[in-house]
Amino acid sequence: MAHHFAIRQTTKLKIDRSNSPVNSMLRRSDNLTPNERRRAMRAVKGRGTAPERRVASILRALGIRYRAQGDLPGKPDFVLPQLRAALFVQGCFWHGHGCRSKTPVTNRLYWTRKLMRNRRRDRRVRRALNGRGWTVLVLWECRIATREDAMRAVARALGRAARSGR
Ligand SMILES: [Zn+2]
Questions:
Q1: 73 CA distance to ligand 1 centroid (A)?
Q2: pLDDT tens-place string over residues 4-59
Q3: Could you report the per-residue pLDDT of 74-133, keeping only the tens digit for each?
Q4: How far does residue 13's CA lie from ligand 1's centre (Å)?
Q5: What distance in angstroms lies between residue 7's CA and the mean position of ligand 1's atoms?
Q6: What CATH number does residue 90 fall under?
Q7: 103 CA to middle of ligand 1, Å?
Q8: Ligand 1 centroid from CA 23, angstroms
Q9: 109 shares a domain with 78
């Protein structure tokens, strides 16, 4: 495993890992949960979606601690323990954002059902998290297309979490 990382580190990687939480996660790799390990691996491989990496970088810049937490409902992309907030980066199509409300023309019934199921699941996840005292924050892909947009969206989301008063 270590060997594998070493090779990766010298080759790919566009993301800055010099002082990233991923790096510290790798350093204490003995105590990683499976979910943390998956996330770390993904980051090292330079995968993880661009929007997610953008948000991660902004959270780090703002000094907001975050972690991945697979045991929370819906597997939030970022868990912010200080704010007791669960942050989801959501694709507009899959999660039915109004900006992309058109269902594809072919197989319309299939897509309508599928996207409806996704939205129902999102609602269920939100209720479950709220029920456990977590504030749910959603960052829509279309709102975080650039770093500037993402900065604003993240700031708004954090403000919302702070106001929710925990
Ligand atoms: Zn959208």
A1: 23
A2: 444 343 333 344 444 444 444 444 444 556 666 666 655 554 556 899 999 999 99
A3: 999 999 999 999 999 999 999 989 886 677 888 889 999 999 999 999 999 999 999 999
A4: 28
A5: 38
A6: 3.40.960.10
A7: 14
A8: 31
A9: yes
13 and 88 both lie in a single domain: no
Question: Long-range contacts: 119-126, Cβ < 8 Å, 24+?
Answer: 119/95, 121/74, 122/74, 122/90, 122/95, 122/96, 124/73, 125/73, 125/74, 126/74
82 and 26 inside one domain: no
pTM value > 0.85: no
CA 79 to chain centre: 8
Contact 123, 28 (CB under 8 A): no
Give distance in angstroms: CA of 97 to centre of ligand 1.
5
In the reported structure, the alpha carbon of residue 51 is separated from the centroid of ligand 1 by a whole-number distance in angstroms of 13
Q: Which residues of 28-40 are buried (b: 16+ CB within 10 A; e: fewer)?
A: eeeeeeeebeebb
CA of 159 to the centre of ligand 1 (A): 20
72 C-alpha to ligand 1 centroid (Å) = 24
Domain holding 32, by residue range, is: 2-42
Q: What's the CA-to-centroid distance between 35 and ligand 1, angstroms?
A: 27
